[in-house]
TrEMBL record, chain A:
Protein name: Oligopeptide ABC transporter permease OppB
NCBIfam families per the UniProt record, alphabetical: PRK09471.1
Subcellular location per the Swiss-Prot or TrEMBL entry: Cell membrane
InterPro entries for the chain: BPD_transp_1_N, MetI-like, MetI-like_sf
Topology in the lipid bilayer: Multi-pass membrane protein
Annotated organism of origin: Marinomonas vulgaris
PROSITE patterns attached to this UniProt entry: ABC_TM1
Family: Belongs to the binding-protein-dependent transport system permease family.
Lyase among keywords: no
Lineage: Bacteria, Pseudomonadati, Pseudomonadota, Gammaproteobacteria, Oceanospirillales
The gene coding this protein: oppB
From TrEMBL, chain B:
Keywords: Signal, Transport
Gene3D superfamilies documented for this protein: Dipeptide-binding Protein, Domain 1, Dipeptide-binding Protein, Domain 3, Periplasmic binding protein-like II
Keyword Transport attached: yes
Organism for this UniProt entry: Marinomonas vulgaris
Annotated protein name in UniProt: Oligopeptide ABC transporter substrate-binding protein OppA
Positions of the Solute-binding protein family domain: 78-459
Length: 306, 536
């Protein structure tokens, strides 16, 4: 197992390097610059700004400056939020999204797996249809509809929850972002769980367990659930990264100050270092959680050994 | 010369007599116990460093944190700030400001002429790399251009502290509107010790020192910015609001929800789509005021047939501006027939002839002109109309394209581009006709008209008329430039139709009925220190 983990870490380095290189040059090839705006700056003024950010040098030099900084853990200055560095902005916004994300993940996992299992055990019954109907609400109600709808119901019609803000993560500020964030994941998890559970329940070892007269709850919790979870787990790795790195809709509607909006705004503002920062963050997390999923696989499935 | 001196003396005295900026609570108003306000702040500002701020969200907050030599009142008139008075020499090239001795930074240090020297100098210093360095260049402060181009040392800038409380500015040529420009954040004082101690971190909540009515308590990017009273502010006794929170919300729809849920007292803007409904449901909370800016369509004059004035006139005449302003935007905008908006200070743009015609007459002229230029039904004009991706621009483009189609048989393809791409496309003249808009930086007609001079960096259509350039250049040193401005308008619009003005901007906000003292001027410079919360 240790060899496997160290191998994964070593593999991650070239992967990240390719990701960084491709993103860097793609970003710099987009038309415009961080400093192009409606008002054209006088050439001398623009020259001073470009010199300050090394933008007057060839892109390849800029790339090596960036890599140099990165090796020292410096993600560079933000071109959009000029009073902050990318390290500061990520340090401020990532914990917010991570907190919303972890709660959303737990909610999605509990409800999603619960719905999937119930639906699978009562396959094609009204319970199956209604449970899956509920779970699938998340797909028909995307979060850009759900977020304003939540505010309308919980903050405008009934003044139960604050319509936005973060306030250091006080729970009333957390409820609506978690609802908006978790619904689409509930649907996905429930669908995968249901499919996989149905398949497992029809497999030979479950039939054997039944034939041996094991009580139903033991069959489900001890024998069926573990193998049925394998496809769910492979989905959860990347899903977890997606959920903890936030959503632009949640950030914009609830004004949480999370990291989600930096993805879109970074690109729109040509905030090169911001785009690079969040790409590296997501890249690293994705590699990390895929590795964790692989380890979990080995723990759950006795057939898999590294 | 005697007359100029006399005029200066009268001006100085009248400014001395003008009321100072502060909340003016009418007698009998019962104030609320809690004087805290939550304001919509638009998007998160790029910086709070006054010399580097370039967007409205930044200026909005800087007006609460800092104060310059003068401020602007609700009508756009000068009101003393850190300066109590000024004198100008006979040819208006040397301005001497007397500063009040009780102005202090939030750490208790006095605000001195040296802070202004430092502020002005760092704005042009190439090391600061300020995108607003050109603002010091516009009034031609001695050596500003040379310093920006790294041809002179920043210390040679034409600003001087004669003593701690006397600040002097030398201009290379007389600029009548110079004092008004001092209300802009680029010309605010800067706290040298703090900036040198903290470097680019000086604007962080823990480090920042400010000389305005408020000081910063908290800044959480994309969540909120909280300011509280600066007890050291010279006019703190007249300030009523104790705490102001700015919520950075980019989406007008998201902002509306926060306002409706009672989390905000004064919005930054309001979504156009909800305007009619809001006007019906909460008319007293929808406040519309004119804004110093024009929405227009730009023609690419480097390309045929847009270099033909007949084509440009035909396209411009065929736009029914009343329909656009009243029905398509429908949020209180005024149709625009001249480039300078009507509310601009000191200049009343003369009504061009085509503004006095009926739309039917305009359409007939348009048809005749386009036919004369060689475009008929069998040989129709076809082009692309470029705009940046936005629902409102799209609606206007669809409406105008259909007016052109109906009146002139012109085939228009709409082309939307993401903001930065759109800017690049325009800058490289890779368009036929493009949507454009301009908001003035200072309340004087040249803030708009300069845009159409042949060397202006934003003259994307590349309009060029030597007579126009001459008139505007001459206007810069004139005491009363209105004559030149009118001639310039006549040449650029009436004669050459360099651009097609469409409507004059407005500022639209939602204001809770208990917010008093909200009086935006045409530049939309509003100050929280003028406001108060009425008991409700």
């Amino acid at each position: 197992m240790l060899t496997f983990i160290s191998k994964r870490i070593l593999e991650a380095i070239p992967t990240l390097l390719v990701l960084i290189t491709v993103s860097f040059f793609l970003m710099h090839s987009a038309p415009g610059s961080p400093f192009s705006g409606e008002r054209t700056l006088p050439p001398e003024v623009l020259a001073n700004i470009n010199a300050k950010y090394h933008l007057d040098e060839p892109v390849i030099n800029q790339f090596f400056y960036y890599l140099g900084g990165l090796l020292q853990g410096d993600l560079g200055p933000s071109f959009r939020y000029k009073d902050f560095t990318i390290n500061e902005l990520i340090a401020q916004s990532f914990p917010v999204s991570a907190e919303i994300g972890i709660w959303s993940f737990l909610v999605a996992l509990t409800i999603g797996v619960g719905c999937g299992v119930i639906a699978a055990l009562r396959q094609n019954s009204w319970i199956d249809y209604s449970v899956m109907g509920f779970a699938n609400l998340g797909i028909v109600l995307p979060n850009f509809v759900l977020a304003p709808l939540c505010i309308l119901v919980f903050s405008i019609y009934n003044q139960l929850l604050p319509p936005g803000g973060w306030n250091g993560g006080a729970w009333p500020y957390l409820v609506m972002p978690v609802i908006a964030m978790s619904t689409s994941y509930i649907a996905q998890i429930a669908r995968i769980t249901r499919g996989s559970m149905i398949e497992t329940m029809h497999s030979n070892f479950i039939r054997t367990a039944r034939a041996k007269g094991l009580p139903k709850h033991r069959i489900i919790f001890q024998h069926a659930l573990r193998p049925a979870m394998l496809p769910v787990i492979s989905y959860l790795g990347p899903a977890f990264v997606g959920i903890i790195t936030g959503s632009v809709i949640v950030d914009v509607y609830f004004g949480t100050g999370g990291i989600g909006q930096h993805f879109i705004n970074g690109a729109l503002n040509r905030d090169y270092s911001m785009v690079m920062g969040v790409t590296i963050l997501v890249g690293t997390l994705t590699i990390l959680f895929n590795a964790i999923v692989d380890v979990l696989y080995a723990l759950i499935d006795p057939k898999i050994r590294y | 010369m005697k007359r100029t001196l006399l005029a200066t003396a009268i001006l100085t005295t009248s400014l001395l007599a003008a009321h100072s900026h502060a909340a003016d609570v009418p007698a009998g108003t019962q104030l609320a116990d809690v004087q805290d306000i939550v304001r919509g702040g638009g998007s998160e500002p790029a910086t709070l460093d006054p010399q580097k701020i370039e967007g409205t969200p930044g200026s909005l907050r800087a007006r609460d944190l800092f104060e310059g030599l003068y401020n602007l009142d609700g009508d756009g008139n000068l009101v003393p700030g850190v300066a109590t008075s000024y004198t100008a020499n006979a040819d208006n090239t040397l301005y001497t400001f007397t500063l009040r001795q009780d102005a202090k930074w939030s750490n208790g240090d006095p605000v001195t002429a040296h802070d202004f020297v430092y502020g002005f100098t760092r704005a042009v210093d190439p090391a600061t790399a300020s995108p607003y360095a050109w603002f010091i260049e516009i009034p031609s402060i001695v050596n500003a251009s040379k310093i920006i181009a790294s041809d002179a040392d920043p210390s040679t800038l034409g600003v001087k502290a004669l003593d701690d409380f006397t600040f002097q500015v030398s201009l290379e040529r007389p600029v009548p509107y110079f004092v008004k420009m001092t209300a802009h954040q680029t010309m605010f004082p800067a706290p040298k010790n703090t900036i040198e101690k903290w470097g680019s971190d000086w604007t962080k909540a823990d480090n920042i020192v400010s000389n305005g009515a408020y000081k910063m308590d908290e800044w959480i990017v994309n969540e909120k910015m909280v300011f509280s009273r600066n007890a050291n502010y010279w006019n703190n006794d007249k300030t009523v609001i104790n705490q102001v929170t700015f919520l950075p919300i980019e989406s007008p729809n998201a902002e509306l929800k926060r306002f409706q849920a009672g989390q905000m007292d004064l919005s930054y803007e309001l979504p156009n789509d909800h305007f009619k409904q809001l006007k019906r449901e909460i008319p007293e909370q929808v406040v519309i005021t004119p804004h110093l800016g024009t929405y227009y369509y730009q023609f690419n004059l480097t390309k045929a047939p847009y270099n033909d004035v007949r084509v440009r006139k035909a396209l411009s005449y065929a736009i029914d501006r009343n329909v656009i302003a009243n029905f398509v935007t429908g949020t209180g905008e005024l149709p625009a027939y001249s480039f300078t908006p009507e509310i601009v200070n000191g200049f009343d743009p003369a009504t061009p002839d085509y503004a006095t015609w009926t739309q039917k007459e305009r359409n007939e002229k348009a048809q005749a002109l386009l036919e004369e230029a060689g475009f008929t039904k069998s040989n129709p004009l076809s082009f692309k109309l470029l705009y940046n991706t936005n629902e409102n621009h799209k609606k206007i483009a669809i409406a105008i394209a259909s007016m052109w189609k109906k009146t002139l048989g012109v085939n228009v393809t709409l082309e939307n581009q993401e903001w930065k791409t759109y800017i690049e496309t325009k800058k490289h003249q890779q368009f036929d006709v493009a949507r454009a808009g301009w908001i003035g930086d200072y309340n004087e007609a040249s803030t708009m008209l300069d845009l159409l001079t042949s060397t202006h960096g934003n003259n994307d259509g590349k309009y060029s008329n030597p007579e126009y350039d001459r008139l505007l250049n001459e206007a810069k040193t004139m005491q009363n430039p209105a004559v030149n401005y009118n001639q310039a308008e006549e040449i650029a619009i009436e004669q050459d139709m360099a651009v097609a003005p469409i409507y004059q901007y407005t500022t639209k906000r939602l204001v809770k009925p208990y917010v008093g003292g909200y009086f935006p001027n045409p530049e939309d410079s509003i100050y929280t220190r003028d406001m108060y919360i009425i008991k409700h």
